[in-house]
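Deliverable D4.2, example record:
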Amino acid sequence: MYNIHYLNKISPKGTALWSEDYTVTDELEKAQGLLVRSANMHEMHLPENLLAVARAGAGVNNIPLTSCAEQGIVVFNTPGANANSVMELALCGMLLACRDVVGGINWVQSIKGSSEIARMVEKGKSQFAGHEIRQKSLGVIGLGAVGGPLANAARRLGMNVYGCDPFISIEAAWHLDSHIVRVKDREDLYSQCDILSLHVPLLDDTRQMINAEAISKMKDGVIILNFARDLLVDDEAMAAALASGKVARYVTDFPNEKTANMPGCIAIPHLGASTEESEDNCAQMAVRELMDYLENGNIANSVNYPACDMGPCRTAGRITILHRNIPNSLGRFTAAIAGEDINIDGLVNKSRGEYAYTMLDLDHHPSREVVEGLKKINGVLRVRVIK
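Output generated by the structure prediction step:
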């Protein structure tokens, strides 16, 4: 029996997947699994019995990843589950920027009490005229779960599309429209594109990637869309570019004290994943990840440990070991097990940066002595007996 705790409201489409082996508890201290959306976990005390955290969404900046890894707590996210929702909003943002829809709506609200509103609209609507996106050039930086489908959608709408993603997966590349022009460096997009859309993670290389230098290389009147991460854009440089007209519109899904008060910026209140379908998909994916890990020890879509999957256990025993990535760890594990005259029927060992994960299928259920011996090996953070 596993106890599960929710830090946020979770879609019933996800929670309905729990089997009879799971109980939802209001007490964090009793939980082996934790489901979270936006709650800030950085100041939380996580109990020793907590085995895994699943974030029903893609971003994990609200979770202390390193301290979780050190405690042997696997952190999952749900990449791609909300991709269509974010892609649709990015497409909406593009249209809002090209056609001054927001300005027009606000103007109508300002004159809605007038008995002459129909005449005023016909006379004043020209101040909100914009342009179509058809035959305009769109540059997509990052062609993953959101950027790739956005690029394809833009092609179907008659746009000329350029894409940049040095790390694109083979699967993502297969799904791209053949007419999308691939470029090697994001700077190659700047002088060619009327609209730029950002779909990359926040890394050292991408932090404030849209800065004064980058903007200076762009077309005059460029539109920039940011539905990925707030800190990809230098707000000071963006404010100056909007004021000068170098950037016509900046659309962001991450309002802050600067962008919310920035003329020329359309700040959307972080609605990228705020659809029923997205919340359902994220919750279902998060629950399935937790169940597979708790029941079988398999890891998929972890952000602090490597992916590792041996399917359901078909042997008499299975042990999993979360450990630091130290040379010869695997040799020490197998030696400890062989010393008890237990045969290893299957083994997977993967590493990710400073941390690693080992799964061992055994022909006997492991003894208490074997488990305690494994726990004492240098670098071991957690040992679990799955079966």
